[in-house]
Structure formats: structure tokens, C-alpha cells
Amino acid sequence: MKITRKEVEYVAHLARLELTPEEAEEFTGQLGQILEYFDKLNELDTSAIEPTSHAIPVVNAFREDVVKPSDDQETALKNAPAREDGFFRVPKIIE
Predict the structure, then answer these.
(1) What is the pLDDT confidence band of residue 12, given thresholds at 50, 70 and 90?
(2) Burial class (CB in 10 A: 0-12, 13-18, 19+), 8
(3) Which CATH number applies to 5-42?
(4) How far is CA 8 from the centre of its chain?
(5) Could you read off the pLDDT of 50-67 as tens digits, one per residue?
(6) d(C-alpha 59, C-alpha 62), whole Å
């Protein structure tokens, strides 16, 4: 599978990335190598291999939930850069 410089520039445009001509050329080569490797992987017969979600068995590594007291409001707000009426004050981002 071959990738063209035009395709790289199109994807960069979609991602809102500005690439120099040198970067576009470099990424075209790198992405081309990645796609060539995928083509090699597609040649393998994987029909006898059972699908897995992880390469190794995964067990739940979470600790047990333990109820314990929470910080009081003053402690929670102690390092807040700004607070108002007992809450964190954050800048408005939606107009």
C-alpha cells in the first residue's frame, strides 16, 4: 500500500497541522514504511489464532473500595488559585 504526499498533506490539513515541504516528504516516507509493514502482516495466516484483547492474561489490579472520610471544604480549597462561595472558581470558556 503506497501513500502519496498529497494524502499526507490532506491528513495534515484535517488535523490542522502545518507541515513544511521537508516534513511532508519525511512523513510520506515514514508512513509508507508503516503501511508496507502492515502489508507484510496481512500476508500471515492467522486463521488458527484465537482473538485476544491482551497479549498476556490481565487480572483486576484494583484495590478494594474502602470508605474513609473525605477532606473538608477548606482543605480541598487550600491550594485553589481562585475560589468563590466555597467552590473552585474557573474561567468562563463558553460565551
Answers:
(1) very high
(2) buried
(3) 1.10.20.60
(4) 20
(5) 888 888 888 887 888 899
(6) 9
